[in-house]
Design goal:
With 204 residues, the protein is of the alpha+beta class. Helices cover 27% and strands 27% of the residues. The strands form 2 sheets. Strands 1-2-3-4-5 form a 5-stranded antiparallel β-sheet, covered by helices on one side. The chain has a 3-stranded antiparallel β-sheet with strand order 6-7-8, with helices on one face.
Length: 204
């Protein structure tokens, strides 16, 4: 039996080798899970920040545009400007169609209102008329740090509310807005926006 192969012992992994392998696999899996969780948390937080900043940007653009138009009075009818001004609300008018009247169209009467109870910022067209129309600009507002402040030409605070006799003295509106956004396990992220808007058409 010259061609007979020598006997070889064939054996699998030992129990110790299996345990070591499983331990290594578990450690690698844990690292991967932690990395995924961290990446997901960062992504969720960044998405929340982006949404908050976008809401603030849209609200500020709309408010800036309307405030700068406040008091537009091409025919000198002296009927346009601020009708109300408090720390949470202001109503302004402008003669957009140049007919000398405050009309229930052409966006000639605009109201912005911070509502603490519902934690939102709303824009209302033609408040107090049959053509009233309301839309929400920000629905996760932090009312504790959101407000409007009104300054005269010298930079003096005109109070809250601004007395009717002093509404025509408003030259600058300071807008403070804070938006809260849910960010998963991070909790809540808050973004703030503060700026001054000149009333270009008032005091001319």
């Amino acid at each position: 039996m010259a061609n007979q192969q020598p006997y070889r012992s064939i054996s699998g992994f030992t129990l110790v080798e299996l345990l070591v392998g499983m331990a290594i696999f578990s450690i690698i899996s844990l690292i991967l899970v932690l990395q995924f969780s961290t990446g997901s948390r960062i992504s969720t937080e960044q998405s929340a920040v982006s949404r908050a900043q976008q809401d603030l940007r849209i609200a500020r653009v709309m408010m800036n545009q309307d405030i700068r138009l406040a008091g537009l009075d091409p025919v000198r009818s002296f009927r346009f400007g601020f009708e109300e001004a408090t720390s949470t609300k202001f109503r302004i008018t402008a003669d957009i169609n140049r007919n000398g009247d405050v009309d229930d169209f052409d966006n000639e009467r605009v109201t912005y209102n911070i509502r603490p109870g519902t934690r939102d910022l709303i824009k209302t067209l033609y408040e107090g008329t049959g053509a009233v129309s309301t839309g929400t600009l920000v629905d996760r507002l932090d009312p504790a740090t959101s407000s409007f402040v009104y300054l005269d030409e010298a930079g003096n605070n005109l109070g809250d509310p601004v007395p009717l006799a002093n509404l025509e003295d408003i030259r600058i509106v300071v807008i403070n807005l804070a938006v809260e956004e849910l960010a998963g396990r991070v909790g809540t992220v808050t973004r703030n926006s503060t700026g001054r808007v000149m009333c270009r058409n008032l005091g001319l």
